[in-house]
Structure formats: structure tokens, C-alpha cells
Amino acid sequence: MKKSEIVKEIIESRRSVFPKDYSGEEILDEILDEILNAANFAPNHKRTKPWRFKVFKNDKKQNLAKEIQRIYKKTTPEHLFLEKKYLDFEDKISKSNVMITISVNFSGLVPEWEEIAATAMAVQNMYLTCTANEIGCYWSSHNVINHLGDFLNLEENQRCIGLFYLGKI
Fold this sequence. Notes:
Layout: H1 3-13, H2 29-39, E1 51-56, H3 58-75, H4 83-95, E2 98-105, H5 112-132, E3 135-140, E4 158-168
Antiparallel strand pairs: 1-2, 2-4, 3-4
Helix pairs in contact: 2-5, 3-4
């Protein structure tokens, strides 16, 4: 099979796969490293490599779930608060083998939109690598991400733009 056919097949089969469809099997560290390394090949102006990822597994993953629930409860007006959504955060995270936070480091060297676009391309590389390795994944950008800065120890020029859920399928 030609390389172009392989790439076309991977692109066309890429889908968001949600935690309810994960098998519960562990993602090998070598595969996780491959997924994260793929991000480094995303185009980025002036070689700023603006993406910042933090990996959460096991207890750290559960701490992330608790923090997201805390933020949701604190920032959601009582009349909009949904207990089901509150519980879904923990459920989805616990069904995921790995959680990765997606943040952007704004260098000041290029417009912010370019840094965000480069980060999105890095995540697309991760999506495609997950697809090639039969790992389900999806990018969520619920409002709680706007309040994760302190928990993630983000600097003033950094912003969380999503959560990346991963699990074997």
C-alpha cells in the first residue's frame, strides 16, 4: 500500500470516540509517547511549539475529575446546575485510561490565533496517531477549562483550551 493510501485511510477513519465506548484496557506508555510525540510535528510559525500537554493517569486523573466537578459546581448558577452533568465528569474521566489537558503558550512572537491554530494541528496529529493505534479519543472544551489555570499551574501567558480523553477501543 502506498503511503498516500495509508494516510488517506487514517484521515477518513478518524472519529471522536467517547469514554462509554472505551474497553478499559490500559494504553501502553510507548503508544502514549508516540501519540504525544506526533504533536511535535505540527506546523508552527517561528517554531514556537505553543502546545502544552499535561498527562493524567490513575490517581492524578481522579484528582482532575474532582477539580472539574468543583469548578462546575462553583461556576454554574444554581438554576443551570445539572446533577447529571456533574456526575458525568467523573464517569467519563474514570472510563478514560488517560486524560490530557490541552493548553496554549502565547509567545508574543506571532498572533494568538496562529498559536491556537498550531495547537489544534498538534492535537489533530494526536487524533490521527490514536486512530492508527486503535485508541479512541475526543477533545472536549467545556466551560470548566477556563478555570483550570491554577490547578494546572499555568503561567499568565498560557490558557487551557481543552481536555483530551483517551481509551482503548
